[in-house]
Each structure stands twice: as structure tokens, then as C-alpha cells.
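Hi Y.,

Following your request, here is the sequence exactly as I used it, all 377 residues.
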Amino acid sequence: MGTDSLFGHLALRFGTHPEDLATEGLAYVLGASPVARAALLRFLRPASSTLPRDLRFATQVSGQEAERPDLVGSDEQGRKLLIVEAKFWAGLQETQPVAYLEGVAGGPGPVLLFIAPALRVEPLWRELRARASHLTSGAVPEVAGELRWQPCGPGRVLALTSWRALLNVLHHDLVAASEVLLAGDVAQLNGLCERMDSDAFIPLTSDEITGSQPRRVLDYCRLVTDLTAWAVEAGLADVTGLRPSATASYYGRFLRIHGWGCFLGAKEDHWARFGITPIWVEVQDEQFKSTSRVREALAQFEHADPPRMIFESGWVRVPLRLPLGVERDAVMADLKRQLADLAMAIRDCISRTGEQPLAPAPAAELEATGPDGSTRG
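Below is the corresponding structure, written out as C-alpha cells. Let me know if you'd prefer a different format.
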């Protein structure tokens, strides 16, 4: 399929809720074609082999806990056996996925399926599993291609896939069945999803301009400032000769935690890419260089469930999660705990290896580079 479409262009040009447009498009295709419905069930078969072929799909069906899943597949008895939640870059609601899992019918095989851009699949899967961890009972998550799933509670399945993977399957089967018009509709829908999976500018909404987002951005920066001050006062960090650093994609400051070079900041670039949180710590050695021992020191963070460290392209990144629904003092207390855990892991590594620390990098060198080593203008 092509990577762009007229529908994708118009949806982004005139629509403020592209998730709703994508959901309605998917519902239309599934409602119009038994071939498309069969393709969807075949795609989900690794996660659940008991979904009936005669599911009837409807959008925006309210549940008992006031949840409104995007798309619901029900059987002839009206039992909700497949709930589909369409995502592009909007965050999870507080009731997702737990209330939505409870909204599917009992019995073997009901599925709660999230669909997201391919770039968001991994961070979103980590977040979904973290929120539903009390329902998994030690069940092991599984993967088949770009489909991920995990049992959650009696007979229920939590699943996640990308728009690309699902739409490619639908398009293939529709073409094979000579349903050319519907295959074209799927290609148009895929164009929108490809645009959303790229760096396309997402149309602004009134809430983004007049709501609490500007205040939140300031809140994140102040949390970073106050957390740095606490770390210095508590003896966990040293900022001698180091100054705050900021660009369009982050605000924060360099600091040394037990001698290791770190950057603590509100990282909008990481937040947009990985989700999880706006506040991150990037960890390097005494000379602010990424080395294998830095990753080894945080092995328990990387292998935690959900992971507390992301290693990518040589960079060690630790997300500091923000608790929801609590006052600022409670948020700060939790951030202090997470940063103290990180400091302890660094200290334990130094004590365990008995290595002599390297000479710290001159502060002047850091003035010319960003926290990812990029040259600053």
C-alpha cells in the first residue's frame, strides 16, 4: 500500500480527532465485508482462537464504568467479545486498560485490542502491562510479528498491534477476494495512519491552547529544578561547575551522581518517542561517555517489569514515572525515591567493581554539547 492518501491529508487538514476518523473508517470496512472481519479474526487467532465469526461492530459503546471504547465487536447475544481502542499519540485514560478489560464478556477468549502507530507499540505495551500487572497472575506476554498479547484475568486477553500490521492484513485479503473498492478504502485509511506514524504536525485543539498544558510544562521544569536541589542537599549529586541546559526539546541540567555523569531533565523528545513520562535521567560514566559498565550497572532496571531503563543506540535512559491523582508533595516524594534508587545502583556498581574512577570531564566540554552528545549551537 502507499504511504500517503487523500483521506490522510484531509483528515489532518480538517480533523481535530484523527483517532475518531480512523475508528469510523475501520468500523465501516469491518461492517461492510465478511472478508475483512475474517481477516481480523485470523490476525488475532494467536491471541484468541475462540472469537466467533459473526461479530457485529459498533463505535463508541458506553460501558458500566462510563468507559467508551472506540469499537466493540459483540456476538448475537450482545456479549462484548472484542473491544478495540484506537490510538495515535493521545495518552491512555485513567481507566485504561483495567476498566476496559472488565468490560469484555466473561468466558474464554474475549480480547481488548489496542491499535497504535508502529513507533509507539513498544512504550505503549510497557505502559499497558504495568497498569494491568495485578491481573496477569504471572502470565508471560507473547509476540507474533507485530501482535503482542497477554492473558489478564479469567479468560480475558490484553493485546496490542500497529495500524500498519492490521491494515496490511485487511488489504491483502480484500484484494485477494477482489473487493477492490474496500481495498482502496483500507489503503486510504492506511494513508492517514502512515501520516500519524511520521512527524506530521497534528492539528491543534482548543484544549491544548486554552487548557492546562502550558502550566504542566512549567510544572515539569520546576519538578526537575527542585529534584536537582534535593539531590544535591541529600548528598546524592554534585553540580559543581555544571549549569542548566535547554533546547526546544528538553530542559534540565548536568549533574554527577556518585561521580557518574548524568543529565536530569524534562525531555519532551523522549516523552514523544517512548511515552511513559516527561522526566528522564540519562546516565553516563565519569567523563559523560556511554560505556558498557553503565548499562551493566543498571541491569536490574533494564530487566524490571515494566522496564525502568531503556537502552537504545548506546544511550542509557531512565524514566522517572509520575504518580497520578496525587498532590505535588506526593509526586516529589516518589521522584526522590526513584532517583535515590538510581543513585544506589550506581554506588553499588562502584563498590562492587572496586574500579578507580576516571577523571571527571571538564565542565567546559559539556557547555558545547547537549545531553545526547549533540553539538549545541
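The first strand starts at residue 56 and ends at 59.

Thanks again,
Q.
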